[in-house]
Amino acid sequence: MAAPTTDAQLISRIKAGDRAAFGDLVDKYHDHLLRFVARRLGDDSDAEDVAQETLIRAYSAIDDFREDAKFTTWLFRIALNMVADFRAIEARRRAVTNGAGGAWGMPQQWIAGHVDTDDPETLLSTRELGERLARAIARLSPELRSALLLREFEGLSYAEIARALHCPVTTVRSRLARAREMLAATIEADANHQVRH
Fold first, then answer.
1. Average pLDDT over every residue of 145-158
2. Is the dihedral angle over the CA atoms 59, 6, 33, 73 positive or is it negative?
3. CATH code where residue 189 lies
4. Of 191 and 180, which is predicted with more confidence?
């Protein structure tokens, strides 16, 4: 009985132009990759598409794979980047779709952390505040808006946002700080306006 073909042997064959060898790798790791992606997306409906894109990216970049590395580590690093890219695209799509007046599904704890919930005179209704924040978010530059959505509403880490937006982590921190300052100013101005009227 022949010994199982190792990852290294399959990758050598792929680099030599053997496409069938990549099919063998896909058969070997597809289910594991799909579970890995689904756990990070929290939604099975998009996991298959992201997993397929990961495999396509891996095949395209196979010449960059170092023979001394572990294939699954390399593959799942690509998958993490694809998940981050997917989240960034989804956040941008929602930003465009919901625009200035849509329902953003503002998390209650995010709103509570930015207004004085103990003072009924300055607390706007959740719905009204959500709409005003949506308008404020829509007025942010695309760079600030994407960073904010990925952090506050998608829960990505700074490193994941940096990969998704193709910028350094320091730039992500700076964009988030500016976006939060602008939104806090908007909330404060709205609250003061509400008190005066």
1. 79
2. negative
3. 1.10.10.10
4. 180
Domain termination site, one of 49, 84, 119: 84
What single letter denotes the amino acid at residue 176?
L
User: Poorest-confidence range of 50-64, 71-85, 99-113, 149-163?
Assistant: 99-113
- Does residue 130 form part of some domain? yes
Domain count, the chain: 2
Domain that holds residue 11: 7-84
CB < 8 Å & 24+ apart, contacts of 86-93? 86/41, 86/46, 86/50, 87/41, 87/150, 87/154, 87/156, 87/160, 87/164, 88/146, 88/150, 88/161, 88/164, 88/165, 90/154, 91/146, 91/149, 91/150, 91/153, 91/154, 92/142, 92/146, 92/149
Among the candidates 57, 84, 111, a domain finishes at 84
Long-range contact set of residues 173-178: C-beta below 8 Å, sequence gap at least 24 = 175/143, 175/144, 175/147, 175/148, 176/147, 176/148, 176/151, 178/144
CA distance 33 to 54: 9
Q: Are 107 and 55 contained in the same domain?
A: no
The reply to whether 75 and 119 lie within a common domain is: no
Residue 173 maps to a domain: yes
pTM: 0.51
Calpha distance 143→21 (Å, rounded): 41
